[in-house]
Amino acid sequence: MWGGSLTRKPVVKPAGVWLCGRLTEKAAAGLATGSRVLPTRPTWVHMRSSKGMRIAVVGLGFMGGVHLRAWRKMPGVEVAIVSRREHAGTGNLPGEPLDLSGIERYPDIDSALADPRVEAVDLCLPTPLHEEAAIRALRAGKHVLVEKPMAPTVAACERMIEEAKRAGRVLMVGHVLRFFPAYRALMDRDFGEPCLATFRRRCERPEWMKWETGGAVLDLLIHDFDMVLALFGWPCEIEASGSGDLIKARLGYDGFAVEVVGGWHPGKFPITMKYRVVGSRATMEYSFNDEPPPSRDPFAEEIAYFAECVRTGREPERCRPEASAEAVRLALAVIEARKRGAWKSA
Predict the structure, then answer these.
(1) I want to staple 192 with a disulfide (CB 3.0 to 4.6 A). Which of 8, 40, 279, 329 is the partner?
(2) Sequence-ordered list of residues with C-beta below 8 angstroms from that of 258, at least 6 positions apart, any chain
(3) Phi, psi at residue 33, to the nearest 5°?
(4) Are 216 and 223 in contact (CB under 8 A)?
(5) What is the DSSP letter of 23?
(6) Rounded to whole angstroms, how far apart are CA atoms 227 and 40?
(7) 206 prior amide bond cis, ω within 30
(8) Alpha-carbon span 145 to 49, nearest angstrom
(9) What is the pLDDT of residues 99-151, one digit of tens each?
(10) Model's pTM, two decimal places?
(11) How far apart, in whole angstroms, are the C-alpha atoms of residue 147 and residue 126?
């Protein structure tokens, strides 16, 4: 056993999931449940305009701009925004100013939630605001797409999930790697018995990061923790070392280990993401920096999938909120493991 690690007792793995530790009962139930139609409340009445479904993007920071661009390219969708600020300079990408022409603006979220034309909201807010905004939207009868991480605590995630169930509305977290071709291929391939895996993700600290979000472990590396859980389930042991927003996590399973390394780097540092997964029958490697960009925008794929779930009333099986809550749980467990001391090689 690795010193200073967190441990979980092994359990029998369900078919198709590499699993050493246990899943929460809610997450396990989610994995075992097939696609089903969400219950609906006939008291919620949406007035769909001639332009189609109306979505309100809440927050126009960097990610709000990314989502807004994707929404505007979707047919059958009418987009509105919620922002108190003047829009010049908000949500801009380098060399690509955000075009807000012809978009209706709500001055606050209450105005959007009170509008019966709005069927769904896309929450691109600082992480500490996710829970309150999502629950208010669900109680107003709106479907909710919320950027990752789902919330700062597991308890907050669970409250969001329970509210979505009560409201009979779609709740989905924007874990875009699940719609990224290189990572979808990783999830779909049969590697045989796992031997080892490494995930790396690094970038400079975002200039827009002014809120306490849990740091790079919860805000950035949660991408990889979500992928690790989707592939292997809960680890038996968790170790971590590093300082500040840089971390090296080692997740121990029965007979193999997974390493997640990265964080926010000081100064100008380009985004880097890569993985190597080795199984008894196959190996797959990917490096974002060495490959051409995807032919289809993963954010657009994610948003189109959410919109389809809203239209059909089906749960987001490809990106269930229970799984997103487990990713928060694992990220927080890694942070806790780091507090207990650095990993020492045997």
Answers:
(1) 279
(2) 196, 197, 198, 199, 228, 232, 235, 250, 251
(3) -95, 130
(4) no
(5) P
(6) 31
(7) no
(8) 20
(9) 788 899 999 999 999 999 999 999 999 999 999 999 999 999 999 999 999 99
(10) 0.84
(11) 9
What is the per-residue pLDDT across 22-54, written as a single tens digit (0 to 9) for each?
333 343 334 333 344 454 443 344 545 446 899
**Alpha helix (H) residue ranges in the chain:** 25-32, 62-72, 109-114, 130-139, 154-167, 181-188, 215-219, 222-232, 298-312, 321-339
Q: Quickly tell me which residue has 């669900």 as its tokens.
A: 138
Identify the residue whose tokens are 């409201």.
167
E strand residue ranges, the chain: 6-7, 53-58, 77-82, 104-106, 118-123, 143-147, 171-174, 194-204, 237-243, 246-253, 256-265, 272-279, 283-287
The neighbouring-strand residues paired with 275 are 199, 286
- Are the C-beta atoms of 82 and 106 separated by less than 8 Å? yes
User: Positive or negative CA dihedral for 309, 311, 313, 314?
Assistant: negative
334: CB partners within 8 A, 6+ apart: 217, 221, 225, 238, 240, 247, 249, 260
Number of residues assigned to the chain:
346
- The token duo for 81 is 């925004």
Q: List domains and CATH numbers for the chain.
A: 6-33+178-296+328-339 (3.30.360.10), 39-169 (3.40.50.720)
Q: Which helix (H) or strand (E) holds 154?
A: helix 154-167
Residues 6+ apart with CB under 8 A from 164: 138, 144, 170, 171, 321
How many other CB atoms are there within 10 angstroms of residue 336's CB atom?
12
Q: How confident is the model at residue 182 (pLDDT cuts 50, 70, 90)?
A: very high
Phi, psi of 92 (to 5 degrees): -80, 145
Residue type, 25: E
Q: Give the residue carrying structure tokens 């987009």.
A: 79
Q: Which two tokens stand for residue 23?
A: 């899943």
**pLDDT, average across residues 335-340:** 90
Query: Could you say which DSSP state residue 199 is in?
Result: E
For residue 253 the two structure tokens come to 């399973």
